[in-house]
Amino acid sequence: MNENKQSLYSMQQEVDAYIQQFKTGYFSPLSQMARLTEEVGELAREINHYYGEKPKKANEQPKTVTEELGDVLFVTMIMANSLDIDLTEAFQKNMEKFNQRDKYRFERKDGQTND
C-alpha cells in the first residue's frame, strides 16, 4: 500500500476543491447517481475481463480494476460532498453496524461463535 495515505476527510476536501473550480459545480443527485452507476458498470466490465470469461476485444483501450475503483471512489466522494455527507462518519457507523450485526455471520478464524 502507498505510504502517502490521506484520510477520507482530506480526500473529500481535495475533490471539493477540484469541483469548485468549475462554474457548473456539483450536478444534481440524480445525475450523480447515473454517473456512479456508469462507473460501477465500467468496474464490472473490467472485473469480467480480468476474472471472468469475457476477454477484451483487440481494439479496446486497456484499463485496470484499480483505475475503475478509483473512478467509483471519486464519484462517490462527489456525491457525498454535494449531499453534505461526511464519509468518515458514514464509514464509522457502517463498521459499528457490521461489527455488531455480522460479528458471527461468517465462520471466524478465531473459532468464536454466537452460542
Automatic annotation (TrEMBL):
Domain NTP pyrophosphohydrolase MazG-like per the UniProt entry, residue ranges: 27-106
Superkingdom classification of source: Bacteria
Xref: CDD domains: NTP-PPase_BsYpjD
Matches recorded under Gene3D superfamilies: MazG-like
The protein, known as: NTP pyrophosphohydrolase MazG-like domain-containing protein
